[in-house]
Amino acid sequence: MSKLVDLVGKVKTSAQAKRVCLALAKHYGATIQYGPTSATVKTLAAALDAIGVKDRETFLYNCAITVGDVIYLPFKLGPSAWTPAQQVCIVAHECQHVKQGGDAHLLFWLRYFTSKAHMAVFEVAALSAEMEVYWRLTGYLFDAKNLAASLSWYGVGKKDIAVCAKHLAIVENTLQRGGEVCDQIKVIAKALA
Ligand SMILES: [Zn+2]
Q1: How far apart are the CA of 180 and the centre of ligand 1, in A?
Q2: How far apart are the CA of 95 and the centre of ligand 1, in A?
Q3: Ligand 1 centroid to 134 CA: how many Å?
Q4: pTM
Q5: Please, is 126 exposed, middle or buried when counting C-beta atoms within 10 Å of its C-beta (0-12, 13-18, 19+)?
Q6: Model confidence over 144-156: pLDDT tens digits?
Q7: What share of the chain is helix, strand, coil (3-state, %, to 5)?
Q8: Cβ 72 vs Cβ 41: under 8 Å
Q9: What is the DSSP string of 48-95?
Q10: Which residues lie closer than 8 Å to 60 by C-beta, 6 or more apart?
Q11: Cα 121 to middle of ligand 1, angstroms
Q12: Could you give the CA distance from residue 182 to residue 126 in angstroms, rounded to a whole number?
């Protein structure tokens, strides 16, 4: 296990967050775009609204999504309602999806949103990364149960959420014992060095 670098409080400004987010995107071979004005995201938002998964506006302005190697954010990098640490967490989460080999085909995403067990498997890895990054940047540990419950936003059922909560509880324990669970943190530490 590598020695942990203390990163708490190191991402305080939106400029720092932007630098780290761009470093993450570069490391994983992704580009970052603003979602609400993207034709791809607007099409997906309309489709999800039509099949009753998610309200169009809520999706556009609250959800990040990765299609292929493009990360679409619901905010513009820089000053925003999202705190600098939140911005980095979201990008770290989406970089996990880039690593998972996000399919560029919109049909993939429709399947993703309509097969809840499938979605849960993908999301638990991304939520683990999000949990670690927020912990390392702020010293605050998300509650595993609450984090897993966020999947209900996408209609994931109680059984799958319970499995995810167990996984995230293990991650929580690992982090508290000084362990590392994702490699995004190394990229972040390097960008802040
Ligand atoms: Zn995700």
Answers
A1: 19
A2: 9
A3: 15
A4: 0.90
A5: buried
A6: 999 999 888 777 8
A7: 65, 5, 30
A8: yes
A9: HHHTTSS-HHHHHHH--EEETTEEEESS-SSSSSS-HHHHHHHHHHHH
A10: 35, 36, 41, 42, 45, 74
A11: 10
A12: 9
Place of tokens 């603003």: 34
Sign of CA dihedral 19, 24, 28, 32: negative
Sign of CA dihedral 7, 13, 15, 18: positive
Cα 162 to middle of ligand 1, angstroms = 17
How far is ligand 1, taken at its centre, from the CA of residue 94, in Å? Answer: 6
Position 12, amino acid: K
- Section 68-77 average pLDDT: 95
For residue 98, what are its two tokens? 């880039």
Cα(132) to ligand 1 centroid in Å equals 15
CA-closest candidate to residue 85, choices 133, 144, 22: 133
Tens-place pLDDT, residues 122-147: 899 999 999 999 999 999 999 999 99
